[in-house]
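User: Need the bound-state model for NDP:
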Amino acid sequence: MSYVDEVYERIVRENPGEPEFLQAVKEVFDSLKPVVDANEDKFRREALLERIANPERQFKFRVPWIDDKGQVQVNTGYRVQFNSAIGPYKGGLRLHPSVNLGIIKFLGFEQIFKNSLTGLPIGGGKGGSDFDPKGKSDREVMAFCQSFMTELCKYIGADTDVPAGDIGTGAREIGYMYGQYKRIKGVFEGVLTGKGLSYGGSLARTEATGYGLLYITEEMLKCNGQDIKGKTVAVSGAGNVAIYATEKAQQLGAKVVTCSDSTGWVYDPDGIDLAALKEIKEVRRQRLTEYKNYRPNSEYHEGKGVWSVKCDIALPCATQNELDLEDAKTLVANGVTAVCEGANMPTTLEATEYLQKNGVYFLPGKAANAGGVATSALEMSQNSERLSWSFDEVDSKLQGIMVNIFHNLDAAAKKYGMDGNYVAGANIAGFEKVVEAMTAQGIV
Ligand code: NDP
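Assistant: Bound-state model below.
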């Protein structure tokens, strides 16, 4: 049995009940085979795969808080510090009822390679809780965030571990968490990113993941002789990534015709009305059923269905495993040419393989959505030098980073004879730098 298969079997044995983590490891390990096979003795002797797939440490803690009725509620908090070979742990905090250790580990594992791909000095980590901010009052959200940070602050710091937002953790939650960290630790430091502009946040961080997704998509299309202008785009999700992906796609001359949330989806044949979408989701925090009030010609459908719409480019921007084999078949039958992941692992392994086999350009999330964490690293730089850069300065650095990521992963795929396989290219390019740093630092 090859070293890769041996280690994967061990990981399956040692991590029962964590399907998302195993899925992420399998995808990465499968594409690393050519690299590992070429250096099998060294990798085996140094147990590099065992080390890279095992978090350096992980915390699981109780988060008690009091709701508006005076009832004590208890949630579970997590922080997984996966790999610090190339910099302090960096990765968001997810607040969603589906959160468990396996999901945080899958996200933390992906984050190692994503952060490496940005070319910036950041290691991989992730955290969160099964707390659901939806439907809670501001006071309840604050009570949760303060309790969560009271424990989390023991493990993080501007030079050790710098969390950020993710699903359910936006500007409001980051603000409450930052306030509590500062109160307990008594220091004003860049310990979180995604902060408000008045207390150390970076311009363009809000837009970064969605904009970055479009910058890399545009570069990939350009390198394959295509133009994004005039293309029809299907976007899923209606949160931070989806909204700013839609904004940049529209700026680049594409027409976005869909969006979705966890209850249903919208088809707007005239193109999504971005101002209406922002009003519904960012200001009023409402369901997408409201969209029809702004755009009577649009359609609202309950449940899943975004991928049944005919489009040239699909941008899954909601959550993991939201695009399955059936969806991939429908997209291909409808003539899709590119699928680029705004969310983390939104496409199942079977769907990814099907898309690739059918000649669809496929950009994995760890490359395509790296603009968010890259801009978080730029926020860290600004905090360290106690300066704020202009929107254009941050945005142009982001654009440069995304274009670079594409060329690095494209080159890595070509180097190992897998031209056009951007999944393999992203995994290999991200992995090589981390392995070099791990090797240089000895057995730790
Ligand atoms: P948000 O919370 O802002 O938005 C998430 C969107 O996805 C919402 O529309 C939400 O619907 C929908 N959604 C969430 N969970 C589910 C589910 N289980 N089923 C169906 N729909 C769901 O999160 P973000 O936009 O920040 O994150 C989206 C994805 O992008 C995640 O995978 C995240 O990890 C990834 N990502 C985010 C980055 C960032 O900078 N924000 C950076 C890199 C990756 P509803 O409102 O109904 O819950």
